[in-house]
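User: I want to check something. If I give you two sequences, will you return the structure for each one separately, not as a complex?

Assistant: Yes, each is folded on its own. Here is the first sequence with its structure:
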Amino acid sequence: MDLEKIISNVKNNREQIDFNISVDCVLFTVQDNKLKVLLTKLLPGNEWVLPGGFIFRSENVETAAIRVLKQRTGLDQIFLQQFNTFSDPNRFLFRSLIKDLGLETIDIVQLPERVISIGFFALVNYELITLTGGEFEEDTCWAEVTKLPKLMFDHQIIIIEAMESLRKELYFKPIAYNLLPEKFTMPELQKLYEIILDKKMERSSFQKKMLKWDIYERLNERKTGGAHKQPFLYRFDTMKYKVAIEKDIKFGM
């Protein structure tokens, strides 16, 4: 990341940015059967942080979260869910951050005493992502949620709460398909649920429940290349999902 670019950006946009409110985005994906989260680094040698940023005065919080994620992934069609507000007075101290970055002698802008952050979690298929490093070309990495490196601020707490929120949402909404390619098998969908919920599921009862909702279209295609029986491929049917919502179908696990 270019420190001079950060300073220039803050100076040039000081009138447009609301410095006491930000968004932090917990972007989940699945790679090698592991649930992972995207992390970035402010500067080489610093600890890792979540992708995030201050909100422009012309934005609402969701627009800001979409902007933050698009800058780092190139995607703007990502499943996004607001899950909590983080407002501890000591969660993000500008004076400490300015000192850590070596900017104590630079008058950037009058900074607030505290920063409140709105937390979002997002889901995306790993194969769709080409990481860009964002506006400031940060270092990035995918970290397993069970093996997080040391994080700055309260970002470990944010990830833990995002994980809890994801699991709760998954029990009541069929959102897991956002982590899969367009075409997938029932065993792949089941494996995804098991990874997120961290528990095994019985195959026949899982498939029966998924098909009962009538939101997955079975295609006239089978998965090829495996050593065992070739299962049918499915696709999430957006129109059927809308009909199911109108019928007040319960998606609880």
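And separately, the second sequence with its own structure:
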Amino acid sequence: MATYTVTIDLNDPDTLAFLVDKSLRVYKSVGTGSTGLPVVWFSENQFSNSLSFSWTEDYGGFVRDGGAPVPGVNVSNVSSDAMNLGDRLSATDSGTVSVDHKGVGGAITVHNTGKRDWMCGMGQIIQSKLSPICAFDLGGIGESVTMMPYEKVLMVFESSRQVDTGTVVERAISASCSVELDGNNLSRTVTFRKDTGWTTNTAGWVTLNDEDLELVDALFVPLS
């Protein structure tokens, strides 16, 4: 099972001073045909000359009260059930959940067997912890949401206002960097500097995003 790693080079005194009141927020791409919002997958506010984070191909799914996700809602305190790709997590009106192997191949599926309106999502292990990456409205009876992992992360340094891991977010206010990985390229390194922002010497697997970015547009990949 693959382990993916992204390293950020911060080796510059002015940059480290600039980041004192900032947090790194990391978001994860997902393939889906449903309407939802991204979730802060990982955050960090303690910085040194180099910062790395890693994730594995271990997944989970969750359901919770709330219906359609809205910015600012935090889903990190919801219990996520460990799932394999191809599994389906089903929820009843009472909140009882069960996992079977009747989902979509290569994806995590969450299914509503009752009439109650739930919020649902998919998680993936990062830094040895299962953390949510997205949130969707799981409507009435018979509704399903399918989510397929996609190995792209978006990173942004923003002011340390209270936006913790697990928080639903709609926009990235500051300039950000998107990095793609695959089975042949399990690690990537990018550089961040106060004066020049995000940079890399390699083209093709990195996208430099402008500020005030709609995160759904940058992270959600339509399923064909």
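Because they were folded independently, the notes below concern the second chain alone. Residues 13-18 form the longest helix (6 residues). The mean pLDDT is 94.
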